[in-house]
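Data availability (excerpt). The following record was deposited with the supplementary files.
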Amino acid sequence: MCEGRENFKVAVRVRPRLPNEVPSGFLQCVEADLVHNTVVANKPILKKASSRIGIDDFGEFVRPEPSQTQSFTYDVVLGKDSSQQDVFLRCASDIVKSVINGYNGSIIASGQTSSGKTYTIAGTKEEPGIIPRAAQIIFSQIGSYSNPAGQYLVRTSYLQIYNEKISDLLEPSRENLKIREDGCGGVFVETLSEHVVRDAEEIMALIKRGTRLRATNVTRMNKESSRSHAVFTIIIEHGKDDGHGGMAVTIGKLRLVDLAGSERLDVDAESKLQEETKNINVSLHNFTKVVTALTTPGVKYIPYRDSKLTRILQDCLGGNCKTTMIATIAPTSECYIETINTLKFAKRAKNIRNIAQVNEDMSEKALISSYQSEIKRLKLQLQERSSGTDIDYIKLLQERQEEQREKEEVKTKLEMQQKLADEAQAEKTKLISRIRELEDKFFRGGSKAVMDTEEFKEAILKEQQRVKQETASQYQRKFAELEKEKERASWRFTNLRHHCSWADSKTHCTTECEKLDFQKRFESPTKNK
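Predicted structure:
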């Protein structure tokens, strides 16, 4: 069991300035100290007075006084030049390896819209994020183990919470899913589909498939803003021989969470966008309430049930889990208010304490145990059905071989008959073609062709009679040959039958006279033949 502060870590990632953020209208209001894991937020001040700070304020920003700066320290700080590999190694690598060994783990990305949450969790094809890197590590690590008795089974699920409704991103028809208790203090999403995977490519195919269905919309801050919370789960089951003829199973669960971005409500936005923003902010507010309750001394009631997000992430927040929360922030002055709120929230979350332990003896929940039991049952059933059936199988095989031999004989006879018929048809076709060839030649002779004379007609008639007689003679010769062959076969068959009858009858003769009489009666016809 691992208990204490090390099970819940907080990281802050400062994204670089985006191309659309005009340098003259913005001031870098955040400084990241990667050595001391510190973030300093500088409150921007306008020379020209304004009611608020935002993209519509075109006054010149100036650097604030020291009294208007705030400093925050975290477990990990990542700057604008930090790579995706840096993020994975410092925030996720240890958790992924723990999950392979049977612990629960979670990586939660939170922050303002357009601050880099989805980029951190999923990344791009050129710069893969935590999910694809975790998938590679999982299968690489499993493949490196040399224990032949160990077996692994990896399965995944992918859901979103949009306007406080849960839907299955891998089975679009499954909407408005319910959260149920599992009887062991945990929860699960009813009818959420799970997919067994065998390599990292299959995981990425599922991610791509599900992400296409995730709710997005155009906001003031982002042209394609995620409007839902997304939770991608990887479950790793490990079964090994327990030394007593059974199987010891551990189950590690990795949740990779991309929260919808927080932002101020835009009263000029369309009604759908306003509704989405309200639901997102309410959900994130309840998320903050849970973090506050977990970090406030003396508070016993934790409001997990106030939102579906906190209900699903109950284990990740103060439960049996190793969790890293990555707070993403934008560096520009326009985002200062949201940045400060995110930094304060992340600072409070540092005080959460999780108790992580290996999930052992969970065979009733393990799919690998179910598969093993089914395999044993089927093998036993196969053995029972195979017992005493070998002889019957051999007999059946012999009968099939005999049947096949008879079919081959019939097939040979039919092929011979077909060959004779084909030859006759070919001869007929040849004669017809010859007649047409002759007729075509005469018809092209013109109006004075000899075909109109009596001599020509008589010649044609004689030729046709000659051809018919020749064809008839050929058929008669072929049929005569077949008849002779038939007679020879009939004679051989009769002779063979006589010999068989003679052999059977001869064994019953008791005197030499009877034998001679039998031989005279049955052998004489043969000699005469």
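Summary of structural features: The domain at 81-377 is CATH 3.40.850.10 (Kinesin).
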